Amino acid sequence: GYTYLAWNTRLPQFADKRVRQALTMLMPREEILREIFYGLGRVHTGPSAYMDPAYDKSIEPWPFNPERAGKQLDEAGWIDTNGN
């Protein structure tokens, strides 16, 4: 199987690259893989299967980094109105 999350760049809230990067950094993908998928799988960096010759194994996945994500969302003009 193949599970993924995509950001629709036609929607204004996802048009800014910093927002898409930040939302990716807020997703605890390693934890999701471990806790929900029982460690069966890997975090991908593109649409090709890992064993496909087209998959570029030199690209590192975006890290889980809420602090950096928050800074990028601030830079992009997103405002936390309820402190969460």
Q: How far apart, in Å, are the first and last alpha carbons?
A: 33 Å
Based on Cα principal axes, name the global outline.
globular
Number of helices: 3
* Overall mean confidence score, pLDDT: 92
* Broad structural category: mainly alpha
Please count the beta strands (DSSP E, at least 2 residues each): 0
Helical fraction: 25-40%
List low-pLDDT spans: none
Describe the main β-sheet briefly.
none
Strand content: under 5%
Give the topology string: H per helix, E per strand: HHH
Task: Provide the gyration radius in Å.
Answer: 15 Å
Overview of the molecule:
This protein is mostly helical. The model has no long low-confidence stretch (mean pLDDT 92). Helix 1 (17-25) runs antiparallel to helix 3. The longest helix is centred in the last third of the chain and has 10 residues, at 66-75. Helices cover 31% and strands 0% of the residues. It has helices at residues 17-25, 29-35, 66-75. The chain contains three helices and no strands.
